[in-house]
Amino acid sequence: MTTPQSAADGTQGKKGPDVKRRSMLAAGVALGAGAVAGPAPAWAAAETGLSAGDIEAARRLFAAGAYTRLDEVLPLLLAAAHSTEQTPASAARAAAVWVLASQLAVKQGHTAPASTYAERAAAAARRSGDPVVLAAAARAAATPLRRTGRTHEALLLLNEARTHLLASARPTAAELEAAGLAALTAAYTAAQAHQPATARDFAAQAEENTLRLARHPHTASRPRELTASQCTLYGIGIHRHLGDVDTALAHARQLRPAHLPTAERRARAATDTARALLDASDTVGAFAQLRLVELAAPLEARRPSVRALTAHVAELRPDLPGLSDYVHRTLASPLRPA
Length: 338
Description:
Elements: H1 4-9, H2 17-30, H3 52-63, H4 67-83, H5 88-107, H6 111-128, H7 131-147, H8 151-165, H9 173-192, H10 196-214, H11 228-241, H12 245-254, H13 263-279, H14 283-296, H15 304-316, H16 323-331
């Protein structure tokens, strides 16, 4: 993973060889899995500006779980984000890149860089003046905040973002979706801090936003993130953290992974279900879910937190058929920055 300082140095002000490198990286993306397919990103062009196509291409990589390829591309995007924030629109695009960098750092288990990237996302989001962008930055910040014991700050940030989004009498579909996602993140954050009333209140708000959003026609080019399935997925982790494993597993049984829009989300569903099954002393079921993690997005199985889960399963039941090979594939080859 590139560091904030190397991102700032990046390719800014360079031409010639960097144009060729951008084209090569774009070709690398184009050769990826079908889930990553889409229009050619603007980083393949000779210009160094940051475009909406850049953002969407990078998001597709994250959604597909193509973390190594995203890590290869990020230095170029971060350099562009650092140097192109002169207008509200360019600031919004820069914020989106910083958010992705923070999310990838979380996947790699790097909390400090995730926090730094989230701070930069927030600064760019404020310059954009867009409440949807501000909410995305708040969600990115919430994970490193809660991992460093600053749950109260994370909840305040998420609630402020949600309130801002719903300030008008008729919020747009984008505002409703962003508000619901902020509420889900807040519910999970509160559950991790063992605040059941707050967690349930935010989860109920997210479900309300989901119902309101469903009444809006979907016109965006990418799938909606805020859906009933997404709420169910979050419910697995929320109830598990609150100590209600039975309800967590009920959510897992209700969930249809095929209804989740991305490989990253399907892998997350299997991971959370594996954790709940382990809490219920079902080691065999937990391992079955870990296999689904790898099936959905192989690099998810190599994340530090998932590798720790695999190691725990191996400690409890080293005799499980197929476990030895799975351990060799995932524990011996962890997800690392490129």
